[in-house]
Amino acid sequence: xxxxxxxxxxxxxxxxxxxxxxxxxxxxxxxxxxxxxxxxxxxxxxxxxxxxxxxxxxxxxxxxxxxxxxxxxxxxxxxxxxxxxxxxxxxxxxx
Length: 95
Description:
Elements: H1 3-25, H2 32-41, E1 45-47, E2 53-58, E3 61-67, H3 76-85, H4 88-94
Antiparallel strand pairs: 1-2, 2-3
């Protein structure tokens, strides 16, 4: 394994851990961009859908629907739901 590969893995894990911590400990501060960043790190792809809802797909996994308010905000309920579906508490225990 090269230095760059190791660095990339460490950066990837620290990014996920940082976002998991935010989702679990401070869910009211999570933005739609945070959700997109986390799901992107976990290999979800956003499929554009008309209206105020983002849908994220990953092969072999049920799609995640994220309704938005005016296309920007996400209600606290959905942030907590995403954290539960993705088992983000497991990432906190690893760090």
